[in-house]
Design goal:
The complex is a heterodimer of chains A (about 525) and B (about 140). By secondary structure, chain A is of the alpha+beta class. Chain A is built from 16 helices and 15 strands. Chain A folds into 3 domains: about 280 residues, no CATH class; about 120 residues, Alpha-Beta Plaits (2-Layer Sandwich); about 110 residues, Alpha-Beta Plaits. In chain A, a hairpin with an 8-residue loop joins strand 7 and strand 8. The chains are: A alpha+beta (about 525), B alpha+beta (about 140).
């Protein structure tokens, strides 16, 4: 059903009399034509009143010539601005309407009553002034976007008023032997979007898209009627949980739940039906813009033995200057103009360990970036900027990736192998022959208890890890270099010094000496992600 | 700060001629340090263990019997949560004497975060310990 028919008359009359706006009236009459809602408010009001007047005419005159051929459909759809269709006889009948507050001559009221159902959402907030206000906010925020999603937060009392209107209409229709299911009514938010999306789209120059990453959101409030929901707390106390952080208990969700539970009689006992006409319109509290996060990935090398992965701050004091994540993300934040970042990598190394070879994969999530489009050239330039800014780290393969891709990186952390190079000291002397046998050991199984040095922040456990291969390089009687290829998650330092005997076997036990590690480097992280550029 | 409890340099058990016969973590009929259950589930979060035994300074950790019939009780000496006891000394008591400061450790204890500083301050440095030892030797001679 796309427009009003005879059957709707009593409903239209009832709702108009009780202070409901034309668009809400359409919603309760199940009018589904989007274009109808988009007509200017004044026209809709005029047409509705005309629609009602025609009814009066029919009642006042038995003769059916007054109104054109009993076409039961009153088409309110204009093809152009003029009210041609309405006045078939060429004369506007001035018939006084029953219960009409207007004086017969003036078709329009100079002041618009605030709708008792939508509290002005489908009135004032569909007008071009509001659209302009929203678009101004969007342009001043300087975001880069190709589409938008418009989300609206409505005050909970709207659901209460909607329920009251439904009950009222249901009752009236019942008298005519008709029924009205809640789902038949056009939802307020839906109708609002029908009207406002095309306008926003035109002003912003991009289409509305439910999947868009760029979100424009408006929060509406109506303080005047805030307490209208409170009766629900007494009627359905279990729907309302104690408030956190001084926020109102009466959230949209809680109110909706309570409305589902409450019985019709109880509702009518506590809430006036029809709902009263408010003095004021809703207020648009905030208009905010937000862009979905973008992800930048790459691989980093670490050349400093004095650089933590993340900022090292204890009791507000920074213990070591800078960090891998800051050195990389600083520049990304500046270029993408984001609010904040989240840095993650495929595993990590200690402060005093270098990362050589192809580097370690990492990903940076840039939150609410103002700028989202970068060409491959620009990304290369950004990479160069980062590399020029510090000799402690270098990045490569810098590129934009999707959120899903991050999962692949984390896989690497658990599954892929790593290779290392360790400089080892022994207490008792060694000769070349003493360490040669290490080269022949394959798939050496280790049992590693959680290292003492991390026990304060990791649970006690034993982990089985495998050293796949080793290659030794003799240096002198107390030193040699060991290259190893190990399973992900192996603690190399502990494998060398034994960690009080809690990692077995260890280099000390294999060589029957006391061994310690002087230097450690990561030679490779064996994962093919992100794609090499 | 993680603490590792070991036998002190001057402990009788580490002096010449002593042989260890047995080591036991059974402190009393109802309390065995071996039953210390420390559980933390998540890799990312170090959960509070309700099972782990909380130790005070005088809480016994283990009892060691030497071949000559003497029995020694090793005490915690610091307040904190018992994380683990070294089961290797049960199977191989020799390491207690061979490597008392590394593989022959007795237990690992984790003090409460708030008490950590106090505890560290209450300990002796290597130098201070040596001074205590030399004073002891001088007064007995």
């Amino acid at each position: 059903m796309s427009s009003l028919t005879e059957k709707d008359r009593p409903i239209v009359q009832l709702l108009l009399n009780t202070g409901t706006c034309p668009r809400c009236i359409f919603r309760f009459c199940r009018v589904g034509s989007q274009t109808l809602y988009r007509h200017p408010y004044k026209d809709l009001m005029k047409d509705l009143k005309e629609f009602l007047r025609n009814n009066q005419e029919k009642e006042d005159t038995a003769c059916s010539d007054m109104v054109d051929p009993p076409c039961k459909r009153i088409r309110l759809e204009h093809t152009e601005e003029g009210p041609d269709d309405l006045n078939q006889n060429g004369v506007l009948q001035q018939v006084p309407l029953v219960n009409d507050d207007d004086d017969g001559a003036a078709v329009e009221n100079s002041t618009v009553e605030v709708c008792n159902v939508c509290l002005g959402i489908l009135q004032e907030f569909c007008e071009s002034d509001f659209v302009k206000k929203v678009c101004e906010k969007v342009s001043s925020a300087e975001y880069q976007f190709t589409s938008f999603v418009f989300s609206v937060s409505l005050p909970p009392q709207l659901s209460v008023r909607e329920r009251a209107a439904w009950l009222l209409v249901k009752q009236e229709m019942g008298k005519l032997g008709l029924s009205l299911a809640k789902d038949d009514i056009v939802q307020l938010k839906e109708a609002y979007k029908w009207i406002i999306h095309p306008q926003l789209s035109e002003e912003l120059g991009v289409p509305a898209d439910g999947k868009s990453l760029f979100e424009v959101s408006v929060v509406f409030a109506h303080p005047e009627t805030d307490e209208e929901c409170h009766f629900l707390a007494t009627a359905c106390p279990d729907c309302f949980k104690p408030a956190k952080n001084k926020q109102s208990v009466f959230t949209r969700m809680a109110v909706t739940k309570a409305l589902e539970k409450i019985k019709e009689e109880d509702f009518l006992k506590h809430f006036p039906c029809p709902a009263s006409s408010p003095k004021n319109l809703c207020v648009a509290l905030e208009i905010q813009c937000n862009n979905g996060a973008v992800f930048v990935a790459g691989r980093y090398n670490k050349y400093s033995r004095n650089l933590p992965q993340t900022p090292w701050i204890i009791d507000g004091e920074r213990k070591l200057e800078s960090s891998v994540e800051e050195l990389i993300s600083e520049h990304l934040m500046a270029e993408f103009k984001a609010d904040s970042f989240n840095f993650s990598s495929s595993g990590r190394e200690d402060v005093d360990v270098r990362t050589l070879g192809n580097g370690r994969p990492f990903a940076v999530e840039l939150v609410n970036p103002r700028r989202i489009r970068f060409t491959a050239e620009e990304m290369k330039g950004l990479q160069q900027t980062i590399n020029n800014s510090s000799d402690k780290i270098q990045v490569r393969d810098l590129q934009l990736v999707t959120r899903e891709a991050i999962g692949r990186m984390k896989e690497g952390e658990e599954e892929k192998t790593k290779t290392y190079s360790a400089l080892i000291w022994t207490d008792k002397t060694i000769q070349k022959e003493d360490i040669a046998f290490l080269d022949d050991i394959q798939e050496l199984k280790l049992d590693q208890k959680t290292p003492l040095r991390v026990l304060h922040r990791r649970p006690l456990a034993v982990r089985c890890r495998i050293i796949h291969t080793m290659k030794s390089e003799y240096i002198d009687e107390h030193h040699f270099r060991l290259r190893l290829k190990t399973q992900a998650g192996t603690y190399i330092k502990e494998f060398v010094h034994g960690d009080f005997g809690r990692t077995k076997p260890n280099i000390g036990s294999l060589l029957n000496r006391t061994a310690d590690i002087l230097e450690l480097d990561v030679e490779s992280v064996d994962i093919d992600w992100p794609p090499a550029l | 700060r993680i603490c590792v409890i070991t036998l002190a340099e001057a402990h009788p058990l580490l002096q010449h001629g002593k042989t260890i016969r047995s080591v036991s973590y059974q402190i009393s009929p109802s309390c065995s340090r071996l039953q210390n259950k420390v559980s933390g589930k998540s890799k990312r979060v170090w959960l509070v263990e309700s099972g782990a035994q909380f130790l005070t300074e005088l809480a016994p950790l283990c009892r060691i019997s030497s071949a000559d019939g003497e029995e020694y009780t090793v005490y915690s000496c610091i307040r904190g949560r018992l994380i683990e006891v070294n089961e290797n000394i049960l199977s191989n008591p020799a390491i207690l004497q061979e490597k008392p400061s590394t593989e022959g450790y007795i237990a690992v204890v984790l003090p409460k975060f708030e008490e950590s500083k106090n505890i560290t301050q209450g300990l002796l440095t290597q130098k201070e310990y040596e001074e205590v030892l030399s004073k002891r030797r001088n007064s007995s001679s």
